[in-house]
Design a protein that fits this description.
The complex is a heterodimer of chains A (115) and B (107). By secondary structure, chain A is mostly beta strands. Chain A is built from no helices and eleven strands. Classes of the chains: A mainly beta (115), B mainly beta (107). The A-B interface holds A 33, 35, 40-45, 48, 56, 58, 88, 90, 100-109 and B 4, 31-32, 34, 41-46, 49, 87, 91, 93-100.
C-alpha cells in the first residue's frame, strides 16, 4: 500500500521564478492538503483540495495556487518566488468524512530553496 | 494570540524517565486533536489522536481538557528512539499545528 509521495524531493529556484510541486495521495484517500514548514516552525496550512476544488485556504497570497486531478493527485504552484518561500512543502492526504474528524498522513516533502 | 501554542523545550531526559508537556489552543470550537511526531528533516507522522476521555497507546498517554483548552502528552519509560519534535495539532475546520516541543532522551 503506497503512502503519500511527493516530487521532487529537492528544488533550487531563483527569485521571480515559478515552481510546481506534485503529490500523490495514499491509496484510498480523496483529500489533499498542502503545508509550508519553515525551519523551526510547525507546518502552516496553505489549502486543501477535495473533489478537484479548493475547499479551504490558509493565509497565503494568490501566488500560491493548486490543482487536484481526477485521480486525486495534486499540484502546488508558486509564482514570483520570494526568498521567504524557501521551506519544506508538505502534502498530506486524508479521507473526507461527514463528521469532519479525519487523520492526515504526510508525504516526505519537497525542500524548496529560493536564491 | 497563536491558534496553537507549545513549549518549545528542549526537554532533556534520561532513558527510563517520564516526560510530559502541554499544548494550548485558542479556538473553543475545535473539534478534534492529535499529536504528531517529527524527526529531524522528516515529515510529521501521526502519533495518536486525542479523545475527550483521554487515551493511552503503550507508553504514551494523551489528555484533553476542553475547559482550560489544553491537551497534554506524557511519555513513560522514555527510549532513545523517542527523541523527536512532538507537534500538537488542533482541528477547527482546518488543521492548525503548534511549532513543536523538542524531546531529547539521553543514555
Amino acid at each position: 500500500d503506497a503512502g503519500v509521495t511527493q516530487s521532487p524531493t529537492h528544488l533550487i529556484k531563483t527569485r521571480g521564478q515559478q515552481v510546481t510541486l506534485r503529490c500523490s495521495p495514499k491509496s484510498g484517500h480523496d483529500t489533499v492538503s498542502w503545508y509550508q514548514q519553515a525551519l523551526g516552525q510547525g507546518p502552516q496550512f496553505i489549502f486543501q483540495y477535495y473533489e478537484e476544488e479548493e475547499r479551504q485556504r490558509g493565509n497565503f497570497p494568490d501566488r500560491f495556487s493548486g490543482h487536484q486531478f481526477p485521480n486525486y493527485s495534486s499540484e502546488l504552484n508558486v509564482n514570483a518566488l520570494l526568498l521567504g518561500d524557501s521551506a519544506l512543502y508538505l502534502c498530506a492526504s486524508s479521507l473526507k468524512r461527514s463528521s469532519g474528524d479525519y487523520e492526515q498522513y504526510f508525504g516526505p516533502g519537497t525542500r524548496l530553496t529560493v536564491t | 494570540r497563536k491558534e496553537v501554542e507549545q513549549d518549545p523545550g528542549p526537554f532533556n531526559v534520561p532513558e527510563g524517565a517520564t516526560v510530559a508537556f502541554n499544548c494550548t489552543y485558542s479556538n473553543s470550537a475545535s473539534q478534534s486533536f492529535f499529536w504528531y511526531r517529527q524527526d529531524c528533516r522528516k515529515e510529521p507522522k501521526l502519533l495518536m489522536s486525542v479523545y475527550s476521555s483521554g487515551n493511552e497507546d503503550g507508553r504514551f498517554t494523551a489528555q484533553l481538557n476542553r475547559a482550560s483548552q489544553y491537551i497534554s502528552l506524557l511519555i513513560r519509560d522514555s527510549k532513545l528512539s523517542d527523541s523527536a519534535t512532538y507537534l500538537c495539532v488542533v482541528n477547527a475546520h482546518k488543521l492548525s499545528f503548534g511549532a513543536g516541543t523538542t524531546v531529547t532522551v539521553r543514555a
